[in-house]
Amino acid sequence: MEIDPVTTETARRDTPVIVWFRRDLRLADNPALNHAMATGRPVVPVYIHDDGGRVRRTGAASLWWLDGSLRALAADLAGRGAPLILRCGDSEAELRRLIAETGAETVFLNRLFEPEAWTRDADIAHGLKAEGVDCRGFNGSLLARPGSVLTGSGGPYKVFTPFLKTLLAGAEPPPPTPLPAIIPGVQGLASDSLDDWALKPTRPDWAAGFAGLPGEAGAIAALEAFVAGGLRTYSRDRDIPAASGTSRLSPHLHFGELSPWRAVAAARAAAADGRVPGAEAGKFVAELGWRDFSAHLLHQFPAMADRAFRPDYDAMPWRDDPAGLAAWQAGRTGFPIVDAGMRQLWTTGWMHNRVRMIVASFLVKDLLIDWRAGERWFWETLVDADPGNNIQNWQWIAGSGADAAPYFRVFNPVTQGEKFDADGRYVRTWVPELRQMPDRWLHAPWTAPPEILRHAGVRLGHHYPRPIVDHAEARLRALEALRTVSRARDADD
Ligand code: FAD
User: Fold this and answer.
1) Contact (CB, 8 A) for 41 and 274
2) Which domains does the chain show, CATH number per domain?
3) Which of 287, 359, 416, 420 is the best mutation target for the ligand 1 pocket, counting ligand atoms within 8 Å of the beta carbon and taking the most?
4) What is the pLDDT of residues 146-172, one digit of tens each?
5) φ, ψ for residue 19 (rounded to 5)?
6) Residue 462: DSSP 8-state
7) Which residue is catalytic, options 261, 371, 379, 396?
C-alpha cells in the first residue's frame, strides 16, 4: 500500500500531546505546558485523581483546596481553548486510556520529587517508553532540582545555611513566561465532573471557616498583596501570630499555583527599586529556601518519611497517650497558645509558623508523643500539607531531623505565648472562653487568683481545661527520654 506522505505528516502534526497536571496547577511559568505548546501540536491537559494507590492519600483539608484549584485551572484552560480532562483512578491505567483515545506519543509533566510519587512516575515513564510513548519531565515546583545542590564533595547538604548559599549562587532563575493567550486543545474527550469527586465536605461543611482563594489568580493576588504590605516588616512580624505578617502563600506553592521563582523575583524586584529593605526580601527568600531544603532532603533521604533522619532518635521511648493526643488535636490541653493554634488549624486549615513550632514541641516534648502522630494530624488538617515541609519540620522540632533544633531545647508554652502574643490577641481570637482574662494571666490561667478567674467568667475544668501536664515535670521527663537516645547512640559507637 502506498502511503501519502502529506497526509501522514499532517496526521503526525495533528497528533496531540498530553500535559499531565499534578501539583503545578497554573498556566504561567509552567515548564511542562510551555514545552508541550512549543511542539505546535494540540494539547490535552489532564488531571488524574489517583489517591491512596501508590502515593499517600491526600488529607481532607488539602482536598478542599484542591477542589478550588482544579476549578480555577479548568476555567483558565477552557477559556483558552483546551478543556481540562478529569480522570479518576490508577495514574498509569488512566494515562494509557487517554493515550489510546488521542493517539498521543508524548506526555509532558512537572516532576514530583517525594519518594513515592518519584518511583511511581519513573515506573510509568518506563512502561510507556516500551510502547513508544515519551514522558518528558521538568522541575516546575522548586528553585532547584533535588540532586543539583551539592556539597564540595558531591554529597547532599544536611545543614541549611550552606545549602541556601549554594542554592542561591548556583540556581539560574528561569525566564518568566506569561499566561498563554490561546492553548490549542482537543474538544470532545470524555471527562469526569469535579462535582462527582466530592472533594469538598458538605454534610457537615467543616471547611466553612477556611480562608484563601485557591487557584493561580488567587496565588498572584496573595503574592502582590504581601509584597505591597507585609514584606516590608517581614522579619519582625513573621513571628507574631496575631499579625498578618507572612505571605500565606504555602497552599498556593504546595499546589503549584505559583512558581517559587516568581515569588523570589517579586521580592527581589521590590528590594531593587527600594520598596522594601533588601534584608526583608532576603529573609523571605531564605524561607523559600527552607522549602527547597525540605524537598531536597526528603528526595535524597527517602527513609526520613517515616524514620528518624538521625537513626539514634528511633530509640526515643514515645508514650502511648490517646487521651493526650485527642486533647492536643481538639485544642483542649489547657495551654492557651497551644489550644489557640490547634483551633486555628481546625477552623481555617492553616496555622501560623510560630504556633506550629509551639504546638509541635508540646506534642513531642511535653506529651512525649511520637512526631509521626502529629505529622499525620497536620497532613489531614492543613490546606498546605506538604510531604517535604511537613516531615522535615516535624523532625526538626523532634530533634531527629537534619540541622534540627536540639531536642533538649524545650519550648515553654507559657513564655512563648507571653513573648509572641503579648497582647493576647491571638489567644482571645481562638480561645474565646478566655477573652475576659487579663493579659497577665491569659497564658497561664491556672496561676490566676480565684477572684480574677471568677471575674473573667472562667471556671477551670469547666469552661476551659486545667493543664493536662505540668510543664516543668514534662520537660524533665523529655530530657530523661533523650538520655535513652544518647545511651542507644553510645551503645552503637
Ligand atoms: P511565609 O513566612 O510567608 O513563608 C513563605 C514560604 O516559605 C511559605 O509559604 C513556605 O512555602 C516556605 N516556608 C516558610 N517557612 C518554612 C519552613 N519552616 N519550612 C519549609 N518551608 C517554609 N509548611 C508547608 O508548606 N506545609 C507543611 O505541611 C508544613 N508543615 C509544618 C509542620 C511544622 C511542625 C512546622 C513547625 C512547620 C511546617 N511548615 C509547613 C512550615 C511553615 O510553618 C509554613 O510554610 C508557613 O507557616 C506557611 O505560611 P506562609 O506561607 O505565610 O509563610
Assistant:
1) no
2) 17-140 (3.40.50.620), 142-175+215-300 (1.25.40.80), 311-487 (1.10.579.10)
3) 287
4) 999 999 999 999 999 999 999 999 877
5) -110, 115
6) T
7) 371
- Active-site residue, from 101, 139, 353, 446: 353
Backbone phi, then psi, for 311, in 5-degree steps? -55, -30
Taking 70 as the threshold, does the pLDDT of residue 3 lie above it? Answer: no
Give yes or no: 353 in active site. Answer: yes
Determine phi and psi for 48, rounding to 5 degrees: -110, 120
Distance CA 428, CA 436 (A): 8
Residue 384: DSSP 8-state: T
Which is nearest to 46 in space by CA: 80, 14, 17? 17
Nearest CA to ligand 1 atom 6: 288
Query: Which pTM was predicted?
Result: 0.96
For residue 138, pLDDT beyond 50: yes
pLDDT digits (tens, 9 = 90+) for 276-314: 999 999 999 999 999 999 999 999 999 999 999 999 999
**pLDDT of the residue at 10:** 47
Amino acid letter, 266: A
**Structure confidence by residue, pLDDT tens digits, 386-416:** 999 999 999 999 999 998 878 788 999 999 9
Q: Is 110 in the pocket of ligand 1 (CB under 6 A)?
A: no
Cell numbers representing residue 369 in the block: 508523643
**Is 248 a pocket residue for ligand 1 (Cβ < 6 Å)?**
yes
> What are the helix (H) ranges across 363-412?
371-381, 387-398
User: In degrees, to the nearest 5, what angle opens at C-alpha 387 toward C-alphas 384 and 392?
Assistant: 100
Mean confidence (pLDDT) of the chain: 95
All 3 cell numbers of residue 217? 489568580
Mean pLDDT calculated for residue range 73-90: 98
The two most distant CA atoms of the chain are separated, in Å, by 100
Q: What is the pLDDT of residue 407?
A: 78
396 is known as an active-site residue? no
Inform me whether the pLDDT recorded for 2 exceeds 60. no
Please give the order of strands across the beta sheet that includes 43-49: 85-88, 43-49, 17-21, 106-110, 134-138
> Does residue 142 have its Cβ closer than 6 Å to ligand 1?
no
